[in-house]
Amino acid sequence: MILVALTALLYAIVGLLLWIAARRKDGTARKAISFTLRDFLHLLPRLIVGVVGAGFLARLLPQEAVLATLGPDSGLRGILTASIAGALTPGGPVVGFALGSAALKSGAGLGQIVAYVTAWSLFALNRTLVWELPFMPAWFVKLRILVALPIPVIVAGLVIAAG
Amino acid sequence: MKDRGGIDWSFWIVAALSLGAAAAVLAREGAEIALEILIKDGLLLVEIIPKVLAGTLIGALVRLLLPKETIAGLLGAGSGWRGLAIATAAGVLIPAGPFTVFPLAAGFLLAGADAGAAAAFIAGWLLLGLNRAIVWEIPFFGVEFVGLRMLASVWAPFAIGHAARVLASRFVPPPPDIPEGAG
Fold first, then answer.
1. Which of A148, A150, B52, B92 is the least buried, fewest Cβ under 10 Å from its Cβ?
2. Residue B163 lies in a domain
3. Distance between CA atoms of A55 and A98, rounded to whole angstroms?
4. Where are the alpha helices (DSSP H) in B66-113?
5. Is the pTM of this model over 0.80?
């Protein structure tokens, strides 16, 4: 139900923005649609491969190994391992979410997976290399990463404390 | 849009991994289990795809409708916590991928926003981005997990922005690059 409402909300926003764009009568709406098609066609194969692959990977992940390294009882060591794994997971829209949810289904702890997802969000190596460094000055990227280093562990700690 | 040229390694690595996993499941557990997984994943895809389409459409529209200067104007160098809050909120709300966000953040820096605001913007997008959460994360993890993770992360963009602001002077190279061909 919530998901249906969220999708409806998304399309309401789309409708509103399209209406604003169409009112300009300068081709903005048409341009937006052609941008969208290009981006969507770029994303689609990544999406299919990520989602379908995640299901098979979840089946293959050795549950005992996942439990031992990232299980709810793995504590700080599990959180640190998960954080490092997150930073090393390739970017792309679904890879981290797909692997993280697969690990969660295989018995990983909530805090450990929050650490994994947070670290993947903040540091995914290839997103940094492919997207961030080409656009941002190197000193800024270094600074941003340095100040964000402790975040996954703290956020995971908060989640564990709350749950 | 940038990786039209060279080979997109991350895609091919993921593709190889996925295909390998599918083959391994097929070999180890048989066609029935493999088909079952395929159907479950297919249903998940059907659920995600309309959201991705909406997300990309919103991203393209915002990119075209909202001039970069408008955002940059709100994030002056001495913008204090208010600047960090605006930057974080912009990151939370911007429905766009890295190919929009990083150029925009670089634009902020060039337009006089400081490293703190730019870092808070990027962190807000990475950790609390609504579009990303709705389109990608919730389908995999469910609302409860994502809500809890976000709640535990709300403070992070502010902390990252503030720390970046405090430490920035040690990171900026002494003679700033003078942009060429600007005039």
1. A150
2. yes
3. 8
4. 68-73, 80-93, 98-110
5. no
| Closest CA in chain A for residue B136 | A94
Whole domain around residue B119: which residue ranges? Answer: 66-171
Confidence check on the interface: ipTM exceeds 0.85, yes or no: no
Instruction: Name residue, tokens 């970046």.
Output: B164
pLDDT of residue B69: 63
End-to-end alpha carbon distance in chain B: 28
Residues B74 and B125 occupy one common structural domain: yes
* Rounded-to-integer distance, Cα B149 and Cα B139, Å: 15
Query: Rounded CA gap, B129 and A157, in Å?
Result: 21
| Domain annotation covers residue B44 | yes
Does A135 contact B103 at a Cβ distance shorter than 8 Å? yes
Tokens of B148: 């809890």
B22 lies in the same domain as B89: no
Q: What is the Cα–Cα distance from A139 to A141, expressed in whole angstroms?
A: 6
Tell me whether residue B176 is in a domain.
Answer: no
Inter-residue contact B135 to B55 (CB < 8 Å): yes
Q: How far is A82 from chain B (nearest CA, A)?
A: 15
What is the count of structural domains for chain B?
2
**Contact B50/B83 with Cβ under 8 angstroms?**
no
Size of interface A-B (CB pairs under 8 A): 250
Rounded to the nearest angstrom, the minimum Cα separation between A79 and chain B is 14
In a domain, B126, yes or no: yes
Q: Do B119 and A55 touch (CB under 8 A)?
A: no
Cross-chain residue pair B61–A21, CB shorter than 8 Å: yes
Rounded to the nearest angstrom, the minimum Cα separation between A108 and chain B is: 13
Tell me if residue A146 falls in helix, strand or coil.
helix
B62 vs A17, A59, A90: nearest CB: A17
Do residues B14 and B80 share a domain?
no
Q: Which tokens is B18 given?
A: 């996925």
